[in-house]
Amino acid sequence: MTAESSVLTPPRAPAPANGTLLAALGVAAFSFSFPGTVWALDGFGPWSATGVRGVLAAAIAVAALLWTRAPLPARTDRIALAVVAGGCGIGFPLLTTLALQTSSTAHSAVVIGVLPMATATISALLTRRSPSKVFWAAAGTGALGVIAFTLSQNHGRPTVGDLYLFGALLVCAAGYAEGGRLAAHMPGWRVIAWGVVIAAPVNLAVSLWALPHEPVHLTAKAVLGMAYIAAVSQFGAFVLWYQGMGRIGVPRASRLQPAQPLLTLVWAVLLLGEHLSPAAPLTAVVVLACIVVTQRARAS
After folding, report:
1. In a domain, 19, yes or no
2. Does 8 reside within a domain?
């Protein structure tokens, strides 16, 4: 068995059940990203946390690429990889970290519940194929529920943190959609590996600028949080997610994403001790109910 056929590159034959499992595991891993970020912020500033996680993730990615002797990406894939790098390797980590400076983990998790709708929309624009009307109706209901929740929490107005979160949604959705498209013909782990490597120069520059200006306190919680968001949130979870999307497609994989905010709410309560407003779990359940509907809907 060669290194290239190792665990980093699962069999790529069509396997919807396995693809769904991989995407679901990716969602579960992503669900701890916000709590992990909060822990990292216990010892790092927001810009330092973003830059350092990106640099560490790139180091892991480079090691994996060298170990498997992965070829350079094709020229036709480099623009899409740049989108993955900008959306998932730089934009989403930075914007969500800035948002978590003022927004609770629970609130941020519910707002991010709009991500499946954004991902499916961008994917439809890129592929010129639209999911079924039932899918759009269910996803739209979930999106409207999240928007209503956001406004109800802030007296009818979005906060700066909410603006960061909605910006993060857009760039991450673009990265997800392009990454899912690439994963149809490129091993999923390579998609995110090249993405974080391409993003590394920016993250290194951010680290070099931020570390002297933001105090660093290496508490156990900060180190554990940084390790998780660098190794799992920025790389490992994406390996599972992109591999799953490559097997079952972006629209079908995005139906699993609404489970993420509900899981994050659980971590917010159990691990961070946050107190939820009645609207938070209610909105998360409404969004989760949309999964049941969209799972029955077939993309057209």
Report:
1. yes
2. no
* 22-42 tens-digit pLDDT: 888 999 999 999 999 999 999
Q: Is 68 helix (H, G, I), strand (E, B) or coil?
A: coil
Band (pLDDT 50/70/90 cuts) for residue 12 is very low
What does the alpha-carbon distance between residue 269 and residue 253 come to, in Å, rounded to a whole number?
A: 27
pTM over 0.85: no
Distance of CA 236 to the CA centre of its chain: 11
Q: Is 36 within the bounds of a domain?
A: yes
Q: Are 231 and 40 in contact (CB under 8 A)?
A: no
Q: What is the rounded distance in angstroms from the CA atom of residue 139 to the CA atom of residue 162?
A: 20
- Work out the pLDDT band at 156, boundaries 50, 70, 90: low
Residue 279 confidence (pLDDT) above 80: no
CA distance 135 to 116: 11
pLDDT tens digits, one per residue of 47-92: 999 999 999 999 999 999 999 999 999 999 999 999 999 999 999 9
Interior/surface letters 20-35, b for 16+ CB within 10 angstroms, e for the rest: bebbbbbbebbbbbbb
Other C-beta atoms closer than 10 Å to the C-beta of 272 total 15
Listed in sequence order, the DSSP H helices in 32-112 are: 33-40, 46-67, 78-84, 92-99, 105-111
- pLDDT tens per residue across span 233-242: 999 998 888 8
Q: Domain range spanning residue 232?
A: 15-296
* Distance set, CA 186 to CA 10, 14, 73, 295 (Å): 12, 14, 9, 26
Measured CA distances, 157 to 164, 165, 255 (Å):
14, 14, 28
Helix (H, G, I), strand (E, B), or coil: what is residue 274? Answer: coil
> Is 138 within the bounds of a domain?
yes
| Domain count of the fold of the chain | 1
